[in-house]
């Protein structure tokens, strides 16, 4: 049976990321991403809010991009997979942490501090889906395409109604 390990988060960055390098030269960085859930309490009618903090790990070229462009408070879209690590603390007790290993990232919001304005766009960056922890990851930038000026479509010529001929060719299912 096939299984799926996929996480999608949209949240705000808790602090500026710091890129580090391992002895073999590979870059990595971690950041905390806050997601907030809002709801109305059924009994009291009060608005409730709950913030969850997620530890996200970026590797290689994606880590370098995050270190360069992502700042505290920035809204961020992240796709990745869950991974739980285990180690022993100073007293010899087993300690666990669950992280999101990022495979794709999209900058959301404007381009604050990046020279110029943008109406809600951002850059998308990711690693190929064939990278599941083995081999060198592939960093792929999806630059935002320039937006052409909106153009009006010419008005269709009026035609006589003949029944089924007026229906669109697209079938909705």
From TrEMBL:
Which terms are listed as keywords in the entry? DNA damage, DNA recombination, DNA repair, DNA replication, DNA-binding
Q: Which Pfam families match?
A: SSB
Q: Does the keyword DNA-binding apply?
A: yes
Q: Which SUPFAM superfamilies match?
A: Nucleic acid-binding proteins (SSF50249)
> A single GO molecular function, which one?
DNA binding
Biased composition range(s): Pro residues: 145-157
Q: Does the keyword Cell membrane apply?
A: no
Give residue numbers for sequence motif Important for interaction with partner proteins: 168-173
Annotated stretches, region: Disordered: 110-173
What the protein does comes down to:
Plays an important role in DNA replication, recombination and repair. Binds to ssDNA and to an array of partner proteins to recruit them to their sites of action during DNA metabolism.
State what protein this is by name.
Answer: Single-stranded DNA-binding protein
As recorded in Swiss-Prot or TrEMBL, the protein's gene is named ssb
